[in-house]
Amino acid sequence: MGRLDNKVAIVTGGASGIGERMVELFSQEGAIVIAADINEAALERVRQKENVYGMKLNVSSEEDWQALAKEVNNHFGKIDILVNNAGISSEKQYQEINLDDWGKMLSINGFGPFAGMKHVAPYMAEQKKGSIVNISSYTAQIGQGFNHYSASKGAVRAISKAAATTFGHQGVRVNTLFPGIIETPMTKSLETSKDLLGRLVQATPLQRLGQPEDIANAALFLASDESSFITGAELVIDGGFSAQ
Ligand SMILES: NC(=O)c1ccc[n+]([C@@H]2O[C@H](COP(=O)([O-])OP(=O)(O)OC[C@H]3O[C@@H](n4cnc5c(N)ncnc54)[C@H](O)[C@@H]3O)[C@@H](O)[C@H]2O)c1
């Protein structure tokens, strides 16, 4: 028996890195998984997996969210799980960041999860049950120099708490994960990555970088009924880095 048998799950950013691992794990555990992503080419690869449907979504588009939530609910009859995982990062320094940079970052990383909850939670409320997992970052909790990125992830932290209280009485749970540095295409693309990643391993109590699996396993627990009395919770997954 799978831990997500008969569940219908949407994972944004499901065509790469952490999201792709979640898509695999959730489907292995019995869920029908909709990998929702802006990257069509990467979606083609994910569509090859069993019980996985790839759907195009720009998380910063309210129209896209409205259409996707409606289509998934019409087609599969319900939505049980939403993981707001899609995101972008930036290494721009404080003095280089302008209003356009700020707007783009906050619209994808902040408005994206907000709009996802806004359009998916009502379908969950119809069955008085649902689990939403939002992906923030350890940079929302400690200063690591990722300025507007940290702001966007701080927004995720705050709206998750607010949503847990807003949707709790409708049976919808909202929890948040705070990954440390995880080896994915996102971190590999950072220009400073080699130097930064090496220093981070040294500075991490568990002496390694995180893997997509580390985040996917936690998301699986929060998505499943095993966590049915947990909402508004925050879990840092960073090998102990921010505990210091
Ligand atoms: N990798 C890390 O070290 C790390 C650390 C903390 C938090 N996170 C967060 O985890 C999440 C996943 O990161 P990852 O490392 O797997 O990155 P990734 O770049 O490998 O994957 C991100 C996915 O999001 C998709 N995406 C980007 N913009 C989108 C949009 N507007 N609409 C829909 N999809 C969009 C991309 O196409 C991609 O498939 C992100 O929210 C990221 O901020 C990552």
From TrEMBL:
CDD domains: SDR_c. One of its GO terms (biological process) is bile acid metabolic process. Keywords: Oxidoreductase. It holds the Pfam family adh_short_C2. GO terms for molecular function: oxidoreductase activity, acting on the CH-OH group of donors, NAD or NADP as acceptor. Belongs to the short-chain dehydrogenases/reductases (SDR) family. PANTHER family: SHORT-CHAIN DEHYDROGENASES/REDUCTASES FAMILY MEMBER (PTHR42760). This is SDR family oxidoreductase.
